[in-house]
Amino acid sequence: MNFQNAMLVFGKDWLEIKQSKQLLVPIFVLPVLMVVALPVIAVQIPVLLISGNGAGNVPLSSTLTLPFEISALTVGMTAKQAFVYSMSAVFFAPFTMLVPLIVSSIISSDSFAGEKERKTVEALLASPLSDMELLVGKTLASFVPAMLVTVVSFAIYAGVTDYLDYPMFGYAILPNFIWILILVGIAPAFAIAATGMTVIISTRTSGTREAQQVSGLLVIPIIGLLFGQTTGVILLGVNTLLIVLGVMIVLDYIILRIGVRLFNRERILSKL
Amino acid sequence: MTQSLEGPAIELKHLGKSFGPFRAIDDVSLAIEKGEVFGLLGPNGAGKTTTMRIISCLLAPTDGDVIVEGKSVRVDQNRVSISKEIGLLTESPNVYERLTAEQNLIFFARAYGIPEREIESRVRSLLQEFDLDSRREERAVSFSKGMKQKLAIARALVHRPSILLLDEPTASLDAESARTIRSQISETAKGGGHTVLLSTHNLDDASRLCNRVAFINRGKILASGSESEVSSLMKHSRGKTNRLAITLVSSNGISPEFLSKNLTGVETAKIDGKNIELVFEDRYSNEDFDFLTSKVISALVANGAQITGVVQSKPSLEDIYLDIVGVATKEN
To answer: Which residue in chain A has the smallest CA separation from B114?
Structure first.
């Protein structure tokens, strides 16, 4: 494989992404909502609980029956600080996983199934570029923007959170180890899985919607994590994240193996 | 591009392609010579696009082989060199609409490994040739269908291929754009010395552009050759008959009996005032008909007739196509 050729495909797709409002709008809507809304929610809830009329009666101690992993992180904090910390630094962490997943599935479905839908893929496949160069180039074209959006949105999220929470803590609470682990391990793993799922489905369909829907199935485990946290069944502490990372690495390996095997000219064209 | 000196540009040898139980191409053998414009004519679903995809290494043959400039498409290592010999224009104007005309051509020039120092001049000259230079920095989404098709042809030529595969180049274009594209193809074929394989169901395009044609239906070749060669394979007389209408200053001294007796191949002869109408026997090809026409004129002149007009009526490519493909469709 000639990596320069893969970068050529990446560059072409990158140019296309930059020119498409249909892609840019959904790519930025969720992260923007997340980085602004979540820190505000994290700060406002304990304020309401303490000073609101009815909410003030809710004993904070009952809301802060935190699992061991969180308790270990909140040692020495007041109840209000512990609540804000748990929300900002732990409970909202799964939302960060949604960003690479959604962004990469939007871009990769446009890149793989979209080329079939727009019937530009045949000329591309007729070029001397190899299957692997096309696959790597297109995978990078969805992975790199997904990670860029994730890192930038996290940076903004951390900035907003620290700006709002600094008066309460006297120091910046983000980034912490959980978020760094998510950024360098879990988020890339989800981005790769979403891209791989799209590659697989793109060889069998010629529509971006179908490709997005199938790669969107990866949202289910994240929603499961969110529910798990809400109900107290699961907590995204370091140990849980390491298990998720391990599972995702195995899943990525399987998805990519299948994707590489299925990504060939004949299979792509036979569904045109 | 380097070309093998001997042998046809493209040779299909007992080519077969199946998609599951469906037989898309069945035992197709053809040889397309270097520098010729060859038309592959057939209805939708006949197997034209599949044939082109096999030639350009996009699909693997199930049976048989295709030799492109001396290289077999069955050998994986030949894919890159074959793809560099071929410029492919696919059915719809499939350019990257979010990119500019220039970006489209630059991307494909790089994909085909054109040296960086040559790309700018090559792209600029193609944009000028196809009358797109003034809009080179505009995104293709704003182009008309005709302009997109021009850009797609320019893209197919950016690596200077020896063979052009054109799949329905004028389909879905308005009459004016179709004419522009047709003349562009004609100039490209003549000027660049390309071998052109034109897949179409537009018989007018084929008649104007092609040296030879092949009729394909349900994956089988029904007839191939020059227009007059395929006309000799017509199975019905509908449209086949060669007719000759001659106008004289006066028909004095010319009788139907004279015409039937003295002229070879005439089946019926009618004289109506100054006008003579001759219908020739079915067995003559278009070339024979031309020869017989000259003999008729010579015989009439030798008999003292003064001729003011001669109109030949031959079967068109459409007549031939409808006869051969229509019969095959009914038989199936």
So the answer is: A128
A68 exposed, middle or buried (CB, 10 Å; 0-12, 13-18, 19+)?
exposed
| Closest C-alpha among B119, B323, B105 to residue B203 | B323
Q: What is the pLDDT at residue B89?
A: 92
- Greatest mean pLDDT among A37-46, A252-261, B95-104, B201-210 lies in B95-104
Single pTM value for the model: 0.80
Residues of chain B with pLDDT under 70: 1-6, 93, 192, 232-240, 282, 286, 327-332
How many distinct structural domains can be found in chain A? 1
Those of residues 111-140 in B touching chain A at CB distance below 8 A are 111-113, 139
**Which residue range forms the structural domain that includes residue A259?**
3-270
Say if residue A175's pLDDT is above 80.
Answer: yes
Is B168 a domain residue?
yes
**Cβ–Cβ gap A265/B111 under 8 Å:** no
Angle between helices A238-262 and A131-169 (to 10 degrees): 160
DSSP letters of A5-74? HHHHHHHHHHHHHHT-HHHHHHHHHHHHHHHHHHHHHHHHHHHHHHHSTTGGGS-HHHHT---HHHHHHT
- Binning pLDDT at 50, 70 and 90, where does residue A52 land? very low
CB pairs under 8 A between A and B: 70
Listing from the earlier edge strand, what are the strands of the sheet with B266-272?
A: B266-272, B275-280, B243-248, B307-313
**Residue from B53, B59, B116, B197 whose CB has the most chain A CBs within 10 Å, to mutate:** B53
ipTM greater than 0.90:
no
| Residues from chain A contacting residue B92 (CB–CB below 8 Å) | 119
Query: What CATH number should be reported for the domain holding residue B260?
Result: 3.30.70.100
Chain B residue at shortest CA distance from A20: B98
What range defines the domain where residue B86 resides? 10-231
Q: What is the mean pLDDT of residues A209-221?
A: 76
Cβ <8 Å between B94 and A120: yes
Judge whether B51 is closer than 8 Å to chain A, CB to CB: no
Q: Are residues B148 and B221 in the same domain?
A: yes
User: B108, A19: Cβ pair inside 8 Å?
Assistant: no
Residue in A16, A126, A128 nearest the CB of B88: A126
> Which of A8, A20, A123 has its CB closest to that of B90?
A123
Q: How many domains does chain B have?
A: 2
Q: What is the mean pLDDT of residues A59-64?
A: 47
Do A136 and A7 meet the contact criterion of CB atoms below 8 Å apart?
A: no
Q: Higher model confidence: residue B137 or residue A101?
A: B137
